[in-house]
Amino acid sequence: MIDYELSPDIAATREQLHMLAEHAMRPIARDYDEREHEKPWDFINMMWQLSKNSGIGPGREKDKTQPRSDSERNLRTCVAVEELSWGDAGLYLAMPGPGLGGAAVMAAGTPEQKERFLSRFKGEKPVWSAMAITEPGCGSDSAAIQTTAVRDGDHWILNGTKIFCTSGLMAGDPSKSNGFIVVWATVDRSAGRAGIKSFIVNAGTPGMTVAKCEDKLGIRASDTATLIFEDCRIPFDHILGSAEVPKTSEGFKGVMATFDATRPIVAASALGVGRAALDFVRDELKRQNIPIRYGIATHKLTVIERDFMDMEANLQAARLLTWRAAWMMDRGQKNNLEASMAKAKAGLVVTQITQKAVELLGPLGYSRDLMLEKWMRDAKINDIFEGTQQINMMIIARRILGYSSKELS
Amino acid sequence: MINFELDEDQQLIRDTVVSFARDEVRPHAREADEKGTIPAELVQKGWELGLVQSVIPEDLGGFGNAHSAITGAVVAEELAYGDLSIATHLLAPRLVTVPTLEFGSDALKKSVLPRFCGERFEAASAAVMEPRMDFDASAPATTLKRDGDDYLLSGEKCLVPLGNEARQFLVIASLANGTGAPHAQALLVDRETPGLTVGERERNMGLKALATTRITFDGCKIPREQLLDGNEAASARLANLWRVAQGAMAVGVARAAYDYARDYARDRRAFGQAIAQKQAIAFMLAEMAMEVDAMRLLVWEAAWRLDRHEDATREAHLAKRYTSDMALKITDNAVQVLGGHGYIRDHLVELFLRNARSFSMLEGLAIA
Known about the structure:
The complex is a heterodimer.
Chain A: H1 8-34, H2 41-54, H3 73-87, H4 89-94, H5 99-108, H6 111-118, E1 129-132, E2 148-152, E3 155-166, H7 168-172, E4 180-186, E5 196-202, E6 208-213, E7 224-235, E8 239-240, H8 250-256, H9 258-287, H10 303-330, H11 336-360, H12 363-366, H13 372-380, H14 389-401
Parallel strand pairs in A: 1-4
Antiparallel strand pairs in A: 2-3, 3-7, 4-5, 5-8, 6-7
Helix pairs in contact in A: 1-3, 3-9, 3-10, 9-10, 9-11, 9-13, 10-11, 11-13, 11-14
Chain B: H1 8-35, H2 40-47, H3 69-82, H4 84-91, H5 94-103, H6 106-112, E1 125-127, E2 143-147, E3 150-161, E4 168-175, E5 183-190, E6 196-201, E7 212-222, H7 232-267, E8 269-270, E9 273-274, H8 279-307, H9 313-338, H10 340-343, H11 349-356
Parallel strand pairs in B: 1-4, 2-4
Antiparallel strand pairs in B: 2-3, 3-7, 4-5, 6-7, 8-9
Helix pairs in contact in B: 1-3, 3-4, 3-7, 7-8, 7-9, 7-11, 8-9, 9-11
């Protein structure tokens, strides 16, 4: 039966996180945008304690010891992430917790591996994990990665360079946390995508170096690291999933399945940034006594009303696609198509919404005294990471047309 | 708790309408458009689905199912997927029955609704739009004035579906109420009312199989019992039920165009491969698929609010606006995917485009 109302449990989480976003994130958001590469340690420590004590925050979403029902885990995560990103997308990304690395372990790890690698998130000190896929020579074409993993007895030896690793510094530098990086590497280059496996590398493992943190357009509170692997030796059982190289690319599909869970979450983060801009514009119009009149004929609407309504409708369309993708995952349905739709739509519309919001406020919108210009910069990443808009459109096209990646590339 | 799945009854209704739209409606779409008429047998078959009778109470002769805007949206989308003209024709009686059911007095229900429970299609309609560039359904130029215990109705309406055969019309007029600004008042008007003149059949860009006419009211005397609940919430709800139905129809037309273009692009070969294998085409199709889903989710949200009897003006307005714009874009892109062939009347996409152009201007042509 159709229902658009969040369950009371999720609605309560949203309310709590909204308070937190408003009072703990907004006040420091501009600061950590201006002071790139500085870490908001007070906020980080507070979030760590909070997520441990009260069970809110995405850091605890995957924790099965929580008493609450888990049947809406993905939807709850999406709602939580939208709220936190409404506070600040960079600070949200900088929060400690399992994050994308944890999602990969959840998706591809054995029960024993989940216990072994994820138990560190219950400790006293904040911990991060991260996902390292992109390389200097390949981004969207993740089947072309060059980083190698060579079996040596009871170990794997990793060699290669990873870039654009979100939270790579916090997860990979042992002076920051006892974290880990999930590294994509090929065990057999001749096997193409079938040879790609993911490996857990603990912070401080000899041979792994955090070489650099990027200067970025937005989400500056979050670090984006370059990691270099030079004969980095890890135990054999740090591989996620099977070590065998199948004849087909099924294994790679398994690795890619992580994205079905993470794309709605990225879309949800996008929604938070877009809503921040939309809320600001709505409040400002109200302050200036400029009404938004629903239910009257289109030709009577002002340009501002039309723009605002288009922003609103597009954001809600993206939100509903996002919730649907998460809802499907919660029901155990395949959502590869729907996850890509959510990500493609959300990434695009929040880019457009925040750009339009800057325009609507005119010279004020361009000023760093207001947050709109920052939200516009923050929003853009959602059109790029976790699969660019174009990659997601490609996935949608293949699904609806029944084409393989060979037939449509 | 969030759920995007129709309940079992709604799925059953949808399945029925899906087959009817595919097997009965779609095969007639082109010929009906060219000839400007819909076969009477098809209309009768549509009537026998019970889409009008279903929500009329049992003691008045109907099936007694609860009225649901979501169910109405599902039916409207699926029928419009078959053909927009035929869908609008088949659902036209609801333009009178649903407002009567929701906003009419018991006496009015008793006098109006049993007529819609017979064996044969009972034509009825709504006269909402007016032939003016600045038409606004929330402030029509057609006026309703007190005249003793009765009212006098004057004005001109256009794009009245089935104006040639409908026996009863839902009319929207401005009613001056004391000192305040006039408000839009809904009322039922019988075809035989003195002063009512039905004009010539209109010639429209699309919806060509749907017979629409102008209607003029020249001081028509209207008994007060013919007025529906005129309070603000009721008027808003009525307009929102239109918006949901037409939004749903926009989803149906857009989806029809998307399916047509996708199938064509998979078959049509150029440069040694299917044109769907070209990113320029594939990305257009991907966007269509994504937007059809987004459109439906927005329409259902507004419908869901209406079914909970919550204020839905914002949601319905945004859904109607979004679906109107997007249906036009999608049908236009469908023509583009077919290229020159899309411009030829051998294919349906040009018909979809002409029909989709109606959504952003036309109001009150269907009700959820």
